[in-house]
From TrEMBL, chain A:
This is NADH-quinone oxidoreductase subunit M. InterPro entries: NADH_Q_OxRdtase_chainM/4, NADH_UbQ_OxRdtase, ND/Mrp_TM. Residues 126-411 form the NADH:quinone oxidoreductase/Mrp antiporter transmembrane domain. It is an enzyme of class 1 (oxidoreductase).
UniProtKB/TrEMBL annotation, chain B:
InterPro entries: NADH_DH_su5_C (IPR010934), NADHpl_OxRdtase_5_subgr (IPR018393), ND/Mrp_TM (IPR001750), NU5C-like (IPR003945), Proton_antipo_N (IPR001516). Its main location: membrane. The gene is nuoL. This is NADH-ubiquinone oxidoreductase chain 5. Residues 466-498 have a biased composition (Basic and acidic residues). Residues 67-117 form the NADH-Ubiquinone oxidoreductase (complex I) chain 5 N-terminal domain. It comes from Sphingomonas corticis.
Length: 513, 702
């Protein structure tokens, strides 16, 4: 696609606004940030509506060489489109969530957020492996600052932990990228996606990428940075962390590990399955005993992300598309849940679950929206997460019934910890005068949560809008993975096929709609 | 446009309107909208059912919207209407409409009525989506939707800790069943490459003899699929093992118990087994398991029902037991009989629950039957309605002539299971019928006969004191909601699931008698009309429709293949020995006699009996210790393991050797390095930058 360089402009708008914010007073910076993110949202809508579903794999491509083979190469497929859409959708909401909660260094804060947006869109749109790396890793910096400067009491420890974990993985990935670009003689991601590395090399490269993506995901046992980061981050930081940054790992698996190293993915899928199954049960049980709201939701995120990883490595359409749907759904729902926590944190300044209770009495609108997101989080049909979880687990079942069983226990444990949370916060009697004095959602808060609620229901009732853009990409990916597809453990044999006379009639009626 | 669209979506629209309107326009508008929508849906449903009864209707599928497509997995929202659906349609819309109407009276003092009515309509919508499903995914949507509504309604009085606990318990226990259902769906898709119900049912008979790998072992394919799906049915229909949520669900308002936890939602499991009956027919092992679980539940729940003193709990266990009947009927292959009992049970059990609600209403929210007695003269309409319900559930009828609803359906189950070669199930059913008759009459005798024991009730005392200080305690309760918050938050909120009575507690005969000057009032008209209408159902639903449901020729004509209807079995049902046919009537009379002897003639007998058989009595009173066992096996370990994993796992191991460990290493290392280095951050950063640039250049240029 030539002509209007929409992707570059989507990067440029928040970048310019970010620089401008640094020199503006607080209130102007707020409005600038909001305007810039809304412009990007509008551009995102244009991007989606002009995306040719079922057309070329790569669209809106831009290419300008920088030096050597390194190039400013942008372009998106369906997966990237959906994740960019998620990012630009959540960004104005994050700015809105920080409107009054952030009081110090507002201009810098807004700039940090806008830079985050640039880097996230860049990560999803990059078509050069080093351009990707720069966006991918640089995304750490504004997030590091957001946690470290505007975070809670223990913010230094949390930001340090966050940085240490993610840096370790990315160094190995960088070495792997150097090797790949030299061996294949190209830095173009689409070219590398079609390049066949020898199987033994694939394993090492796969592991190097895995080190980075597993941390970003995060997968058990390298998940412990997430609860701390969430707890210390300001509300909007948590939203963007859960909503978009956690999707980078899944996107990485989808963009690099699977298409570039099919054989390695196939021989190591058991590793992903094993870690994911442990994660679902382990982190769900840990979530059950949390007394801090944000920590509880953070642990639940780890469990949800495990569903993403098993889905991705199921090597079938349901698994992969389900994983993408879980990513999108989780991005919205956990983002919304963090907003819900933020709403009451702003009023009472504590995340202790036991301090609340009875909010349904004085905050009925809040109770309703919180209920919707709670139900979406536990995958109630009719909400976004159900479609994703159903497909991902269904895909997994075709590979391993045992792992599917273990991971499906997440629907029981998830219901237990989320409903237990909801009960303690919203139901029961009001226990203190401070809680009684809490007011229901303000207009601003309603405007933050209502759009997410609408999309959550849209994704749950008519997910076709979201499945259609990635259908072709899934086909291409599966065609590439087909040669390495692991056999499932079900292997049903054919029945005897004898239809007893007594049933013949039933059958005839049954099939006549 | 097919009328089914209105039947299904009117309740949804009504729920949304009522929910968002909430209290903005007063309580009457949401109540009128939801109730009106349900009566319209009901009026549209009966013609559909009757056209199937008359035999001139054909099955139809009305497409609504594309749902999910991923690979070969393709699902649409669609509304299927066939004979099986039509039965469920009339059950759901009729009972729901009547319960809506009943709630005008029952909930009149509650400040949150719009929310209550919105939930009721939402439930009805989800239930209708379940029964009109043309594929397993939509069925699961309805399945979970009714679970949500059930959760919300059990916890409707959200200020009460016990209601919240019961709501969570209901949802989580149901999720255990849903785990099975989901795996069943996955397996079904894997085997059949579709989740469309007609397509699966067409292919199922051909799968006999196929094997499949599951959890590392190989099993018969259809057995695995059916058992997984049946686990879902066990959860929703509160079968033995996953039944523990149902008695606690009585924390919800009584109309909810009548609609959701008696007439409709809990029968969804039975509906699912019947809907998928050709699948189950392909696996004798699975059917054997269904029969076993059904019969075991039937017996278990009936035994527990004999000892409970809370009126709603008795009826709850009765429901559990009756669901057992339906399952073992399905297990022996008599799906028509299972659906027939589902149909009649919906009327008489809703009647009993609403009747109980009327008694509770009259007795100022006292639920313990030990504090009732002699009520038949005070609330005659309720009494007659409950009496008709009891006659229906105990199966009163005369051989060769006919009888109340339960006579036709329950006797059919006992006979057909004998004919199908399951005498053990059949005799279990007979014994459970004895217990049914006993606990049903026990309920009637304790409530309506004997001398009043009202004065000893705290609730009655409360009412009497209220009446002293204020002319109208209703008005007081209403204003109280504003002033005292919880204390008087609608008197109905005092309702609960009945606390597990202490073993040492008094028998009814030891309660001092006396009215204390309390005058129970008959319920208002909105509550009495549903009782009267349902009474007609309890009397007539059996003989009016038994031809269509269970007779060989009429049945085949009616069901039109929507269930696996076995004509030969239904013929054989009539060939069973006369003693089997009469057994249900004999035990019904025996149970009545025992109850009469124990609760009317010599009222000190139950206490003596309980004393003599203390361990057995305690075992039954404690509901076979299921709650205690599960708490010990699952709930406590889950929290304990969670704490261990958090403190010992995350903090004690991963963090200790991970980030904190490396931090320690860095500190030690940097102390050594500091001697060589300048110690300024920017020098390090500069060195790193140079290194990085060099690496990138080397990679790209090379």
């Amino acid at each position: 696609m030539t002509g209007f360089p929409i992707l570059s402009i989507m990067l440029l708008v928040p970048a310019l606004a970010a620089v401008a914010c640094l020199f503006l007073p607080a209130q102007t910076a707020r409005w600038t940030a909001l305007a810039a993110t809304l412009v990007d949202l509008a551009l995102g809508v244009v991007l989606w509506t002009s995306f040719d579903v079922g057309g070329a794999q790569w669209q809106f491509q831009e290419y300008s060489p920088v030096f050597g083979s390194f190039a400013w190469a942008l372009g998106i497929d369906g997966y990237a489109l959906l994740l960019i859409a998620l990012s630009v959708f959540l960004m104005p909401i994050c700015i809105g969530a920080s409107w009054v909660a952030i009081e110090k260094r507002v201009s810098e804060y807004m700039a940090a957020f806008l830079f985050t947006e640039v880097l996230m869109i860049g990560t999803f749109a990059a078509q050069d492996i080093f351009l990707f790396y720069i966006f991918f890793e640089a995304g750490l910096i504004p997030m590091f600052l957001i946690i470290g400067i505007w975070g809670g009491a223990n913010r230094i420890y949390a930001s340090y932990k966050f940085f240490l974990y993610t840096l370790l993985g990315s160094l190995l990935m960088f070495i792997a990228m150097l090797y790949m670009s030299i061996t294949a003689g190209t830095t173009s991601i689409p070219a590398l996606m079609a390049y066949d590395f020898p199987a033994d090399v694939q394993t090492w490269l796969w592991l190097a990428f895995f080190a980075s993506f597993a941390v970003k995901m995060p997968m058990w046992p390298v998940h412990t940075w997430l609860p701390d980061a969430h707890v210390q981050a300001p509300t909007a930081g948590s939203v963007i962390l859960a909503g978009v940054l956690l999707k980078l790992g899944g996107y990485g698996f989808l963009r690099f590990s699977l298409p570039m190293f099919p054989e390695a993915s196939s021989s190591l899928f058991w590793l992903v399955f094993g870690l994911s199954a442990v994660a679902v049960i382990y982190t769900s049980l840990v979530a059950l005993v949390q007394s801090d709201m944000k920590k509880l939701i953070a642990y639940s995120s780890v469990a949800h992300m495990a569903i993403v990883t098993i889905g991705l490595f199921a090597f079938n359409a349901q698994g992969i598309e389900g994983a993408m749907m879980v990513m999108l759904g989780h991005g919205l729902v956990s983002g919304a849940l963090f907003l819900c926590v933020g709403v009451i944190y702003d009023r009472l300044h504590t995340r202790e679950i036991s301090r609340y209770g009875g909010l349904a009495i004085n905050m009925p609108r809040y109770a309703l929206l919180f209920l919707l997101f709670t139900m979406a989080s536990i995958g109630l049909p009719g909400t976004s997460n159900f479609v994703g979880e159903l497909l991902a687990l269904m895909g997994t079942y075709q590979v391993s019934t045992t792992i599917a069983l273990l991971c499906t226990t997440g629907i029981i444990l998830g219901a237990a910890y989320m409903l237990y949370l909801y009960r303690r916060v919203v139901f029961g009697e009001i226990k203190s005068e401070e809680v009684r004095a809490m007011s229901d959602l303000s207009g601003r808060e309603l405007w933050l949560l209502a759009p997410i609620a609408a999309v959550v229901l849209w994704m749950g009732v008519y997910p076709e809008s979201f499945l259609a853009p990635m259908r072709k990409d899934t086909q291409i990916l599966l065609a590439r993975l087909d040669r390495a597809k692991p056999a499932g453990d079900s292997l049903p044999t054919k029945g005897k096929g004898i239809v007893p006379a007594a049933h013949a009639e039933t059958t005839a009626h049954g099939s006549a709609h | 446009m097919h009328s089914i669209l209105f039947i299904v979506f009117l309740p949804l629209v009504a729920a949304i309107v009522a929910g968002f309107a909430n209290k903005s326009f007063g309580a009457t508008l949401p109540k009128a909208i939801t109730t009106g929508a349900l009566f319209v849906a009901c009026a549209l449903s009966w013609p559909i059912f009757l056209s199937f009864v008359l035999g001139d209707a054909q099955a139809s599928v009305t497409p609504v919207l594309h749902f999910i497509q991923s690979g070969t997995f393709d699902v649409n929202w669609a509304l299927r209407v066939d004979a099986l659906t039509s039965v469920m349609l009339v059950v759901i819309t009729s009972v729901s409409a009547l319960v809506h109407l009943y709630s005008w009276g029952y909930m009149s003092e509650d400040p949150d009525q719009p929310r209550f009515f919105a939930y009721l309509s939402l439930f009805t919508f989800a239930m209708l989506m379940l029964v009109t499903a043309d594929n397993l995914i939509q069925m699961f949507f309805g399945w979970e939707g009714v679970g949500l509504a059930s959760y919300l309604l059990i916890g409707f009085w959200f200020r009460k800790p016990s209601a919240n606990a019961a709501a969570i318990k209901a949802f989580v226990v149901n999720r255990v069943g849903d785990l099975g259902f989901m795996l069943g769906i996955f397996g079904t898709y894997l085997v059949f490459d579709t989740v469309s119900i007609p397509a699966i049912l067409a292919a199922a008979p051909g799968m006999a003899g196929s094997t499949i790998g599951f959890l590392g072992y190989r099993f018969d394919t259809m057995t695995v699929l059916c058992l997984l799906l049946f686990v879902g049915a066990m959860g929703k229909s509160a079968q033995l093992g996953l039944h523990t949520w149902l008695p606690d669900a009585m924390e919800g308002p009584t109309p909810v118990s009548a609609l959701i936890h008696a007439a409709t939602m809990v029968t969804a499991g039975v509906f699912m087994v019947c809907r998928l009956s050709p699948m189950f027919e392909a696996s004798p092992t699975a059917l054997g398991f269904v029969t076993f679980i059904g019969a075991a539940t039937c017996l278990f729940a009936a035994t527990v029902g004999t000892t409970q003193t809370d009126i709603k709990r008795v009826i709850a266990y009765s429901t559990c037991s009756q669901l057992g009947y339906m399952f073992f009927a399905a297990g022996v292959g008599a799906y028509g009989a299972a659906m027939f009992h589902l149909f009649t049970h919906a009327f008489f059990k809703a009647l009993l629950f609403l009747g109980a609600g009327s008694v509770i209403h009259a007795m100022h929210h006292e639920q313990d039957m030990r504090f009732y007695g002699g009520l038949r003269k005070s609330i005659p309409v309720t009494f007659v309605a409950m009496l008709l319900g009891t006659l229906a559930i105990t199966g009163v009828g005369i051989y060769g002539i006919g009888g109340f609803a339960g006579y036709h359906s329950k006797d059919a189950i006992i006979e057909v299971s004998w004919a199908a070669g399951s005498p053990v199930a059949s005799m279990t059913g007979v014994f459970a019928a004895l217990l049914t008759s006993f606990y049903s009459w026990r309920l009637m005798f304790l409530t309506f006969w004997g001398t009043p024991r009202w004065a000893a009730s705290e609730h009655i005392q409360h009412a009497l004191h209220d009446a002293h200080g204020h002319d109208d305690h209703h008005a007081e309760a209403h204003h109280g909601a504003d002033h005292h918050g919880a204390d008087h938050h609608g008197d109905a909120a005092h309702e609960d699931a009945g606390h597990a009575p202490a073993v040492e507690s008094r028998g009814f005969n030891e309660i001092p008698t006396g009215t204390g000057g309390y005058h129970p009032h008959e319920s208002p008209l909105p509550m009495l009309i549903p009782l009267i209408v349902l009474s007609i159902g309890a009397v007539a639903a059996g003989f009016a429709f038994f031809h269509q449901f269970i007779e060989p020729d009429a049945g085949e004509h009616f069901w039109k293949g929507s269930i696996a209807f076995d004509e030969h079995l239904m013929h054989a049902m009539h060939e069973v020995p006369l003693l089997v046919k009469l057994s249900a009537t004999i035990v019904m009379l025996t149970g009545l006699l025992i109850a009469w002897a124990a609760y009317i003639r010599s009222p000190d007998f139950p206490a003596k009996f309980a004393d003599t058989f203390q361990p057995l009595y305690r075992f039954l009173l404690r509901k076979w210790y299921f709650d205690e066992l599960y708490h010990f096996l699952f709930v406590r370990p889950a929290f304990a393991i969670g704490r261990v994993l958090w403190h010992r796992g995350d903090e004690g191991t991963i963090d200790r050797f991970g980030p904190n460990g490396s931090a320690w290493l860095v500190q030690v290392g940097s102390r050594a390095a500091a001697r060589l280095q300048t110690g300024y951050v920017y020098t390090y950063a500069f060195v790193m930058l140079i290194g990085l640039t060099a690496a990138v250049t080397w990679a790209i240029a090379g």
